[in-house]
């Protein structure tokens, strides 16, 4: 039996224009605050996002729009940088984050909303502060999942865990870089490396949180 014309048109439209992908707007709030932290038998205040070191992980899917409201509660100017480490700022260069390059820094007591779309990309990436040495403690991961129904380009893992490698200085990091700028020498080497904000155990003090 011959197919009615309207059925043929419907099939053609379905082939030319597949079902639209469901995209979401992901909202995050970054409160930049001071928090006391103890590592390597000594304590110091550090700049953090939401009191966490490393900062929160952003989760989104390919083609989602991400809105990150950053509120600055510390004494330093700051900005958050996204693109060098993976986020393609397609027509949203103002959301890239380098202070004094694509934006004025967020001053103490002020706030700024980063707004960008994750177009044609997936994977685990990184964000960090892009002014002074605040990136030493103000950083975190971005996990971009494929669209629903789109498989990973590898076998499905048994388990997924975000691992962020970092460094830790006992001294205030701003003092470290300021001393290096004055002397003309390289900054002092960090006192420890960290995995998800934790250093290895130290025999002379408690191993809790290492």
From TrEMBL:
Keyword Signal appears in the UniProt entry: yes
Any one Gene Ontology molecular-function term assigned to this protein's record: copper ion binding
InterPro entries: Cu-oxidase-like_N, Cu-oxidase_2nd, Cu-oxidase_fam, Cupredoxin, CuRO_1_LCC
Keywords from the UniProt entry: Signal
Domain called Plastocyanin-like: residue spans: 35-147, 160-204
SUPFAM superfamilies: Cupredoxins
Signal peptide (residue range): 1-23
Similarity comment: family membership: Belongs to the multicopper oxidase family.
This protein's name: Copper-resistance protein
């Amino acid at each position: 039996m011959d197919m009615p014309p309207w059925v043929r048109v419907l099939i053609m439209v379905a082939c030319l224009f597949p079902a639209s992908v469901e995209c979401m707007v992901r909202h995050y709030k970054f409160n930049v605050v001071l928090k006391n932290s103890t590592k390597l038998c000594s304590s110091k205040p550090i700049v953090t996002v939401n009191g966490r070191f490393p900062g929160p992980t952003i989760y989104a899917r390919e083609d989602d729009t991400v809105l990150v409201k950053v509120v600055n509660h510390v004494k330093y100017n700051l900005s958050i940088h996204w693109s060098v480490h993976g986020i393609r700022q397609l027509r949203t260069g103002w959301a890239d984050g380098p202070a004094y390059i694509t934006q004025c820094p967020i001053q103490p007591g002020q706030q700024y909303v980063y707004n960008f779309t994750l177009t044609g990309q997936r994977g685990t990436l990184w964000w960090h502060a892009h002014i002074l040495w605040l990136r030493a403690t103000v950083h975190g991961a971005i996990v971009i999942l494929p669209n629903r129904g789109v498989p990973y380009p590898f076998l499905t893992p048994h388990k997924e865990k975000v691992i962020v490698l970092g460094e830790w200085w006992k001294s205030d990091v701003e003092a470290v870089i300021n001393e290096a700028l004055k002397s003309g020498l390289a900054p002092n080497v960090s006192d420890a490396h960290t995995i998800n904000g934790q250093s290895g155990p130290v025999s002379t003090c408690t191993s809790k949180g290492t």
